[in-house]
Amino acid sequence: MKTRLCLSLVGVVLNACATPPSPPRPAASAPRPDPLLIAEGREWRLVELMGQEIKADAGGRVPTLSFKLEGQSLRVSGYNGCNGFFGQAEQGAPLRLRFDKLASTLRACPDMSLEQQFMQTLERTDSYQADAKQLQLHRARMAPLARFEPAAP
Question: Which among 49, 69, 109, 152 has the fewest CB atoms less than 10 Å away?
Fold first, then answer.
């Protein structure tokens, strides 16, 4: 009985000496998406991938990339040279960009090499540089992995 009483008293004393819990911190607000990336209706056309110029296919198409803000999520979609694709983009500290949860339709094409390279490039991207005339995707701020220009309206 004395042991329980002593333990209870020790608990009360320790609890009284404990520092009060700090008030909850407000959640850090997510960085605002770069207006150059999500400009209304902007679609980016791939013009260079891994240093190689990209030419339009027989149908006149090249891979594209578009960003759209949906609530607090930055969504990405486009055409990868064979299939349509979609997923999430995360914009962090200034000029940081990562693509996540990318998926594409499952159409089989005679040559899937451009699609594979393009999707691998998106997965490797960790930063970007953009102005009104071009978007560059980078890995570790090295030479651009991919370079895009705005698609003609």
Answer: 152
